[in-house]
Amino acid sequence: QVQLVESGGGYVQAGGSLRLSCAASGSIISMDGMGWYRQAPGKQRELVAQITSVGYPYYPNSMKGRFTISRDSAKKTVYLQIDSLKPEDTAVYYCNLDAHWGRGTQVTVSS
Question: What is the pLDDT of residues 53-84, one digit of tens each?
């Protein structure tokens, strides 16, 4: 009964910015634990950012600096702001909450 829908991906030149959105619907009682993952061709899916169980944003060390996760609990929406995009950021970005996954949104960065 939970559905996650990502949006905001697209084509952008290196150095540009994107803001991804994940709209959740269904019986969601908390945004805590919701996060963003990405998967590039030939690579494993990796965590980009996550809202912890205490509502604080978490970023792996490799993701710190250019990524910002935020949320609007009233709208049941989480966002991922990506600044200074690089070609290596090219991937499908997925929204996750517990066992639920969105279909993903493609981000392509040209040099």
Answer: 888 999 999 998 999 999 998 999 999 999 99
Mean pLDDT for all residues in the chain: 95
The DSSP call for residue 43 is: S
Tokens of 80: 């991922």
Report which residue type is found at 22. Answer: C
The partner residues of 105 in beta bridges, in order of sequence, read 93
Query: Following DSSP, what letter does each residue of 48-91 receive, concatenated?
Result: EEEE-TTS-EE--GGGTTTEEEEEEGGGTEEEEEE-S--GGG-E
Return d(Cα 55, Cα 9) in angstroms, integer.
Answer: 25
